Here is the input.
Amino acid sequence: MGFESAVQMGKYMKARGFDWSDEIDNYAPVGTPVEGDEEPAVDVVAEFSSDSPDMMAANVMPGSVLQRYLPILIWMDRHRDQFVALLNTGTESQAQIPRYTVPGQLTTKSVHMASSLAQLVQDFSREKNVRQRDIFEIALLEFFRRHGYAKEVEALLSL
Here is the structure.
C-alpha cells in the first residue's frame, strides 16, 4: 500500500482515528466498542422518569407541555458547555482570520465560479490584505473540518 513499514502504516491509521485491536486482529475506530464490550444505548427521555429527583424538584404540573420537555431541558443543561461551544461556532471575531501552514508542493488549480463570487474574493483579499490562495486554503480546510474530514485535516496539518 506504499508504506515503508508497519510502524508508518500504524501512524497513518492513528492519525485517521483508528487503533489496532488485538481482539479483532484489525484496525478499529477509536472509541468503538469491541464485540461484547457494547454499552447499552441511553434513552435521554427515559433517563428521567416522572418520579426522578430532577422531575420532582421541578414541581411541574403532570400532563403539562413543560413536563414532556423537561427531561430534554435537564439533559441539555447538563451538557450546557457543549451547546454553547456549538452555538458559538462561526461567531468568532471577523478580524481574526485563521492561518494554516499546509505542507507539500504547490500546484495550480483552475476553478470556474460566478464572476460575482470571484469579485468578492478579490475585494476581500485586497481589503483584508490576505492572499487569494490563503482564502481558498482556509475555506477548503474549514469546509473539510465541518463536513466529516476533521481527522484528515488534522493529519495533513501535523505532517
Observations:
- The chain has a mean pLDDT of 79.
- The helical segments are 6-15, 53-58, 65-78, 80-88, 115-128, 132-146, 150-157.
